[in-house]
Amino acid sequence: MTNNLQEKQVVTCFLESGGEILLLRRSEHVGSYQGRWAGVSGYIEQTPDEQALVEIEEETSLNGEDLKLVRKGKPLTVEDEKLGIRWVIHPYLFQIKERGKIKIDWEH
């Protein structure tokens, strides 16, 4: 691992419904990885569990009542030397109870 990278803690949430996984294309208005496909993601400002639900609601309009936690993975580290960041990613998988309620925000 490179030592001069800034460490950033994030959550990444994958939402499943009927065997399909929601992937969102990042808009040109976000700070990094514009145009790339991703799960619902965001910087951790609270606990990872709390932040996962905050990000899902902000980015999809779904709240905790619309979701069932299927699995929480162990954090993994990804280094991006171009951005100078060591991402510590806290992964989650949620099942969507009612698929038609999704409304995406400006980030996608």
TrEMBL record:
InterPro entries: NUDIX_hydrolase-like_dom_sf, NUDIX_hydrolase_dom. Residues 11-101 form the Nudix hydrolase domain. Signal peptide: none annotated. This is Nudix hydrolase domain-containing protein. The lineage of its organism: unclassified sequences, metagenomes, ecological metagenomes. SUPFAM superfamilies: Nudix (SSF55811).
